[in-house]
Amino acid sequence: MAHTRITRTAVLTFEHISEVVRAVGLDRFMDDIISGLSCAGANLDPEATVVLERSGFQYTKPDVGLIEWMPSMELGRAVGIKTVGYHPTNPTQRLLPSVMSTTSIHDTSTGQLTALVDSTLLTALRTGAASAVVTHILASPEASVVGIVGAGAQAVTQIHAISRVRQITRVIAFDTDPAVSATLASRLPLSVPVTVVETAAEAIALADIVCSATTVDIGAGPVLPDCGYLPHVHINAVGSDFPGKVEVPVALLRAAFVVPDDPPQCIREGESQQLELSELGPSLPELISNAGQYEHFQQEISVFDSTGWSLEDLIVAELALDHARQLGIGMFIDLQSTPTDPYSPYEDVLG
Amino acid sequence: MAHTRITRTAVLTFEHISEVVRAVGLDRFMDDIISGLSCAGANLDPEATVVLERSGFQYTKPDVGLIEWMPSMELGRAVGIKTVGYHPTNPTQRLLPSVMSTTSIHDTSTGQLTALVDSTLLTALRTGAASAVVTHILASPEASVVGIVGAGAQAVTQIHAISRVRQITRVIAFDTDPAVSATLASRLPLSVPVTVVETAAEAIALADIVCSATTVDIGAGPVLPDCGYLPHVHINAVGSDFPGKVEVPVALLRAAFVVPDDPPQCIREGESQQLELSELGPSLPELISNAGQYEHFQQEISVFDSTGWSLEDLIVAELALDHARQLGIGMFIDLQSTPTDPYSPYEDVLG
Question: For residue B320, what are the contacts with CB-CB under 8 A and spacing of at least 6?
Answer without folding.
Answer: B12, B17, B20, B117, B122
